[in-house]
Amino acid sequence: MASTLPISQSHGGVGHHKPLVSLRPRSPIFHSWALPRPHLAPDGLSLRSPSPFVVLAARTAEMPRKKRSSSSSEKGFVEEMRAVAMKLHTRDQAKEGEKEPDAPPVAKWEPSLQGYLRFLVDSKLVYDTLETIVRKASCPWYAEFRNTGLERSEKLAKDLEWFKEQGHVIPEPSSPGISYAHYLEELSEKDPQAFICHFYNVYFAHTAGGRMIGKKVAEKILNNMELEFYKWDSDLSQLLQNVRDKLNQVASLTRGCLFLALARAGLEKRGSIA
């Protein structure tokens, strides 16, 4: 039988074109678990929330990074995607944010354990899908993104197993999670440039805004426990830089297509989640 205790009591321990911003279908990441109570529907799912890209990528600019050189490769595709992302952030989410706030700040969110478990399950499905796609490498340059050190599936599996051991019921992936995973598979086959935008969004945002939000959730419902999801096995700054370099190298070969992908599918802003 699942534990009825709060979790804190159950454990001791980009080009000349200005990109449009869109994610189709709706990304399930941070879909419903951390919204203010007035925005919760009877089934616990949110009727409205911040744009998932804004939440997912919150504070990308805040991530501690080694000082970068001024070489052209360091001002490549990744930096241009980041500049677009900052237009979707509020000042609460990033110092360089330009967007007017349309929801309460993260500090005022009220996370629930049930919602957080849904988020972890959906996240694992998304990361499983991304890792499978780059492993199979239907597009040859996907292979460049194998074994980056940013992979999260194994870490999430450990976290979900821990919750299960505490007596909590692990839910099945949600419909938004399944839809987004299928969408990634479809993009990887039909539109590699758009797929790589999603790859960047998911992995890089988790290392920045994802960590910040994870810390807030841990403070509220996990008794400050740090999940494996938020741990990396080597220096994170170097892992990120290695992937930035690879992304820029790929972009130098497919630059025009990548920026068209940004405009079509890489970074779309959404105002609400059903």
Describe this structure as you would to a colleague:
By secondary structure, this protein is an all-alpha fold. It has one domain: Up-down Bundle (Heme Oxygenase, Chain A), CATH 1.20.910. Helices cover 47% and strands 0% of the residues.
* Number of helices, counting only DSSP H or I runs of 4 residues or more: 7
> Might you state the CATH topology name?
Heme Oxygenase, Chain A
Number of domains: 1
List SSEs in N-to-C order.
HHHHHHH
Tell me the helix content. 40-55%
Query: What class do helices, strands and sheet pairing give?
Result: mainly alpha
In total, how many beta strands?
Answer: 0
**Unreliably modeled segments:** 1-23, 30-74, 265-274
| CATH homologous superfamily caption | Heme oxygenase-like
CATH architecture: Up-down Bundle
Distance separating the two termini: 31 Å
Please state the average pLDDT score: 73
Subcellular location: Plastid, Chloroplast
Keywords: Chloroplast, Heme, Iron, Metal-binding, Oxidoreductase, Photosynthesis, Plastid, Transit peptide
Biased composition (Polar residues): 1-11
Protein name: heme oxygenase (biliverdin-producing)
